[in-house]
Amino acid sequence: MNIGILNAGGDCPGLNAVIEGAVGAASARGWKVIGFYDGFEGLLSTPDNERWRELTPENCHNIRSMGGTILGTVNKGNFTVKSGVGGRMQIADEVLAASKATVERLGLKALIVVGGDGSQTIGNELRAIGLPIVGVPKTIDNDLGATDYTFGFWTAVSVVSDNLDRLRTTADSHKRMMVVEVMGRHAGWIALYGGIAGGADVILIPEIEFKLEEIVKKVELLKALGQREIIIVVSEGAKIGGKLLTLDEETKGEVRLGGIASFLSTKLETITGIETRYCVLGHIQRGGSPIPFDRVLGVRCGAKAIELIEQGKFGETVALHRNDMVSMPIEEAVRTLHLVDGESQLVEQAKEIGISFGDSTTYRI
Ligand code: F6P
Fold first, then answer.
1. For burial by CB atoms within 10 Å, which of 60, 135, 209, 339 has the most?
2. CA torsion 306→6→96→92, rounded to 10°?
3. Residue range 316-346, pLDDT digits in tens
4. How far is the CA of 51 from the centre of ligand 1 (A)?
5. Would the pLDDT of 85 be above 70?
6. 232-242 burial by CB neighbour count: b if 16+ within 10 A, else e?
């Protein structure tokens, strides 16, 4: 039996682990795996311009430790979904038809789509025209309601934590304040876990409305206590006066978030008089080798996808639930964004150990 695999959207540490897991489990069943290059674009292969290669346990040996993806990925392109009538996503008919033709020509009995909510929505569109799709959720943002954790998230948290350790020593030497911007889009998970792990004094996330005067209050307090360095972690999706800061206007797909650390650093330096620098961790959070948790989760996702194919569970996506790999319909998986609950025990405990979220509720000093 022949099956295909592709990854789409932004890359994420652990993608290669998923590929290796899927190839291993497929090969154990005697199946052949085709890996499409550059996300869904690979489906637009023609006999004159093939954009795939066969994946074997030999050519995927130990790729689980590698960052990025051996197949390449694209998050804008021919499959960029556009909102049509009634907000329904639409992909051009000729693009859908060409994809179907490729799957048929290569005799694929299933196609594994590794991607975030946008890519899973595209997968669902392909499913609607009869392609046998199985999904694997992917994002460093950890914002998919379907699964307890997405692979790549804990690697990103670990990068944030490591970098806060580094920034702290230079901030301490210079008696400076550092404002560190992290990824996560509309979810504050990376800032929350990375900030707690890296000892941030203030964590600003999209889910908790913050006030400048509350941050200043906390900073003044720390200054009065004689703390030399002050670390503020801010999610790229945190809002100023209810507005997102973006790097460009919406073109194809989603806006690029960014700019809040620079904005806050100027404001806070002016108000507090403390020399302040900002640092945008950016794509460093997505690059490099996945940490062990993400390697394990990645290979498990790949193996589970093969099991779903064997059971004929098309239109389903794999998910992690209480350390078990389970599955659920793709539609259900992309329906809810998994956001931080500002009143959760985790946030309360962070406040308990002295972290401010820039809101007016109390934190221990
Ligand atoms: O969704 C993952 C993510 O890394 C977000 O955290 C970030 O906003 C976005 O992708 C960046 O995308 P790009 O690679 O297109 O700049």
1. 135
2. 140
3. 999 999 999 999 999 998 888 999 999 999 9
4. 25
5. no
6. bbbbbbbeeee
**Quick one: pLDDT at residue 148?**
95
At residue 180, what is the residue type?
V
| Residues in contact with 120: Cβ distance below 8 Å, sequence separation at least 6, in sequence order | 113, 135, 137, 317, 330, 333, 334
Residues within a 6 A CB radius of ligand 1: 10, 75, 116, 139-141, 183-185, 236, 256-257, 286
Sheet holding 108-115, edge to edge: 52-55, 32-36, 2-7, 108-115, 133-137, 316-321, 324-329
What's residue 295's pLDDT? 98
Tokens 């992290």, located at residue: 182
Residue type, 42: G
Q: Is the pLDDT of residue 81 over 70?
A: no
Hey, what are 46's tokens? 């023609």
Helical H segments across 175-211, by residue range: 189-197
At 265 the pLDDT is 98
> Best substitution site from 76, 140, 338 to test ligand 1's pocket, by max atoms within 8 Å of Cβ?
140
